[in-house]
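Weekly modeling sync, notes
Attendees: S.R. (lead), two postdocs, one rotation student

Agenda item 3: backlog of single-chain predictions. S.R. asked that every request posted to the team notebook include the full sequence so nobody has to chase files. The rotation student volunteered to paste the first one in as an example of the format we agreed on. Action items at the bottom.

Example entry:
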Amino acid sequence: MNLSVIATLGSVVLAATAGCSAGGEKPAEPTNTPPTTTPPTTTSAPPTTTPSAAPTSSSPMVGGMTECTKEALAEPATAAAQALGSNNLYTIDELNCADGWAVTSGVLSSTDNPDMGAPTSFIFEQQGQFWIPKEKAEVCGTNPVTTTAPSDAEIPAGLFMVGCAAG
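Predicted structure, as returned to the notebook:
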């Protein structure tokens, strides 16, 4: 065999194994001991609920992933209020839930005058572990001023009055 071919093959092997180097450290000695595994442990605190001013038509845990509590909706409701104005404050007074939907009713005010506000409600739909704000014009149907939910309303009928017919 030609020496230049052997030198070339040696260079290829050296380059291919360069990434396998342990930097001068000796490789680990093989053992006959089987690896041990520790099963994962999970702990969870029991869910806490805050009673709302009106009874809800579903249990506090919606879809098995998201709780329908004032605490769980405080952040999404504040974000919905601040989407209307960055200085807005929102206090949830009442919470109603049904079929993966929630309606918060409360007072919308500003940081300039937190004691003066207007009654406001926000509608949310549960998606996985999140509460997604919904526009009333998109979920309340074509005639949201009636006392019953229109046939094209997406919001559950039990939440129509508090979510769509009220401010």
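Discussion: group reviewed the output briefly. The CA atoms of residues 56 and 97 lie 5 Å apart.
Action items: rotation student to repeat for the remaining queue; S.R. to check formatting next week.
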